[in-house]
Each structure stands twice: as structure tokens, then as C-alpha cells.
Write a structure and sequence with these properties.
Radius of gyration: 17 Å
CATH superfamily: Nucleotidyltransferases  domain 2
Distance between the termini: 15 Å
Number of strands: 0
CATH class: Mainly Alpha
Shape: elongated
Structural class: mainly alpha
CATH topology: Four Helix Bundle (Hemerythrin (Met), subunit A)
Strand content: under 5%
Order of helices and strands: HHHHH
């Protein structure tokens, strides 16, 4: 595979990731339309609401994962050093895609809680979902900034 073909493939993948961000966001908002916030406790929720919370958690994590992968790919296509994720975050911050690197890291920690910790306390579960709701607009703003940067700054071969 020559360099031109490889670069074309990377731009095709970037386009697919940007489309995936849109689909995941659509799914997130679809799920949110089936939930009523604030939730004080998950103890009194029915199966449909618990299923919707599970979908919300999954889609929130997936959105962050796809945004992260897209930021890494964007960094590399921009010609910047993106070997490590801290380098990617630094570049994204310099480009104005991310306003606060520490806020992104906090989002990642929040996502990891939902993906790897299984708290059974219904009040703490409700607090966790409240945190996701609170952080979602910031993550969507990052997605918007990233997509705008890609469209404005990256030119396919």
C-alpha cells in the first residue's frame, strides 16, 4: 500500500468516525427522551427505565471512545505528534477542540466508573447518572469542535 492510498484510507476512516459520532449522539438523545431526570434513586424504576439508563450509560461511554479515537486520528492526520494520548490532548487543546484537558480526563474517569465499577447502591447509581447528564453537554461541545476542526483544517488528498 503506497502512502497516498494509506492517507486516503485514513480520511475514509475519519469520515466514518465522524458519522459514528452523529449516530451515537442521536441514540443518546433518543434514550434521554425515555428518561425523566432528576432521578433520586434507581430503586423505584421499572425495567424499561433501567434499560434506558443502561443504554444511556453505554452510549455515553461509546461516544467518548469514538471522540477519543477521532481526536487521535485527527492529530496524526494534522502531522502532529500523537503517539501518546497526552500528546493528542495537548494538540487538541492547542487547536481549541478541548478547552480544558483536565475536564476531559475527568470525563474519562466518569466513563470508566460506569464501564468497570458496579455500584449496587440505588442512590449512588442515581448520582452517577446525574453526573453523566451534567457532563453530556460538555462532551457534545467537544464533539462539535472536533468535527468543525476536521472540516475546516483537514483536507482529504
Amino acid at each position: 500500500m503506497n502512502l497516498k492510498t494509506l492517507r486516503e484510507e485514513q480520511y475514509r476512516l475519519l469520515t466514518q468516525r465522524i458519522a459514528a459520532i452523529g449516530r451515537i449522539r442521536h441514540g443518546l438523545h433518543y434514550t434521554l427522551n425515555h428518561l425523566v431526570f432528576p432521578i433520586e434513586t434507581t430503586e423505584c424504576l421499572g425495567d424499561a427505565q433501567l434499560e434506558a439508563l443502561s443504554a444511556f450509560n453505554e452510549r455515553f461511554g461509546k461516544l467518548q471512545d469514538v471522540i477519543a479515537a477521532t481526536m487521535k486520528q485527527t492529530t496524526l492526520l494534522s502531522g502532529a505528534d500523537g503517539e501518546t494520548f497526552p500528546q493528542v490532548l495537548s494538540f487538541m487543546s492547542k487547536c481549541g477542540v478541548i478547552e480544558d484537558v483536565e475536564a476531559w480526563k475527568s470525563l474519562r474517569m466518569l466513563r470508566n466508573i460506569g464501564a468497570h465499577e458496579y455500584d449496587i447502591d440505588p442512590i449512588r447509581q442515581a448520582d452517577y447518572f446525574a453526573s453523566l447528564m451534567q457532563e453530556l453537554p460538555g462532551m457534545e461541545a467537544i464533539a462539535d469542535s472536533l468535527i468543525k476542526f476536521c472540516k475546516d483544517q483537514l483536507k482529504p488528498p
